[in-house]
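Cross-check.
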Amino acid sequence: EVQKLNQQLEEKNGEIQQMINQPPYEKEREILRLQKTLAEKERAQATSDVLCRSLTDETHQLQRKLASTAEMCQHLAKCLEEKQRKEKGNSDDQIPTERSNQLLDNETSLQALICNLQDENRMLKQKVAHV
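Predicted model, tokenized:
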């Protein structure tokens, strides 16, 4: 290993000697090339940082939206349960058919809304997982 490291050291010293022995214009060209490479890497890093911040912001926004959607689903589920309990309590008393139809329509629309919110919730979870 020591011999291998010594050989690598000699190779690096040879490269340094070549650089020293190069004419000044080639040294300048090498310096300009290295500066250009550094500038490109700095631009790439800046772009990366901006994208990372953007994704982080979007992730937080999606998490907040997911939380509010979940909260809304829970609220709607509670409302639906209360209406079902009331409906069961009133089933002993014959409800007029018009009121019964209205309750069924409300229940159907609530169930459709819950399904839509659950689908949106699932999509948001997928987006958050993807991000």
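The chain has a mean pLDDT of 84. The chain has one domain: 16-87+98-129. Passed to J.P. for a second look.
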